[in-house]
Design brief:
Blueprint lengths: L4 E14 L3 E8 L4 E6 L9 H4 L5 E7 L5 E10 L3 H4 L1 H17 L7 H14 L5 H17 L24 E5 L4 E2 L11 E4 H12 L2 H6 L4 H18 L5 H8 L6
Parallel strand pairs: 3-5
Antiparallel strand pairs: 1-2, 1-4, 2-3, 4-5, 6-7, 6-8
Length: 258
Amino acid sequence: MAHPIESRRVIVLRKTKLGESDLILRCLGQDGSLVEAVAKGARKPTSSFASRLELYSCADVLLAQGRGLAIVKEARLVEGNAALRSSFERSVAAAPAAELLTRVAQPDLVHPRLFDLTRAAFDRLARAEGPAVLALVAAHLLKAMAMVGFQPSFSACSRCGAPVDLDAAPSCVPFSFLEGGVVCPACRAHVETTVQATETLRWARYLLSARLDEVAAVGIGADAAAGALRFDQAWIKVHADCRLKSLEFLFTSGLQAV
């Protein structure tokens, strides 16, 4: 009996070898759900899938739905994003964004804005230089976490809701990753907090709210961008319950010193 055919637009997040010539693809669907499928023969030099289903590319695919993983029957390249694979700097930066999505996206959970966010982030990462690369991935991670329900509070106490003005705050402020945001002086004794640099929180607040084209052009320094990424790392560890290996590699690669 023929399997039903489904057309999907996807962004390729991860590729895993299967057998001698096949690939298992983990992709972000246009509705924000996780799409897992097998591309048979994709590792053969003569396969048309090889250039159409590269990592970080956007493609239109036809999937045959079976009892197990779907099978890719056809693929048409929409955006190749080759610069994310040819440049070490951009490849290392794109990896945490892709890895986070494989952790927070689910096959039957719809988050349409995740796709548009990731497509735009990859497009801008492919053209970014220097610290803007780090700023863009930091912004993507924060925005993606917010879209799936984990948005940090930078303007109100995460325990009592009292206003907190980061622009008038001293150099360091108490922040609770468990509670979900900044903590006012009155609540600090009752909540587990860490001391965070106010500048880092201001940058994280900006990256969360700004458009990606603004992030790319803002002129953030390398230290500030790396600080925002370390904030992301701690936030993701608590609220997505995972450590992104690709983000840890980024910190050891020397990229944050660019």
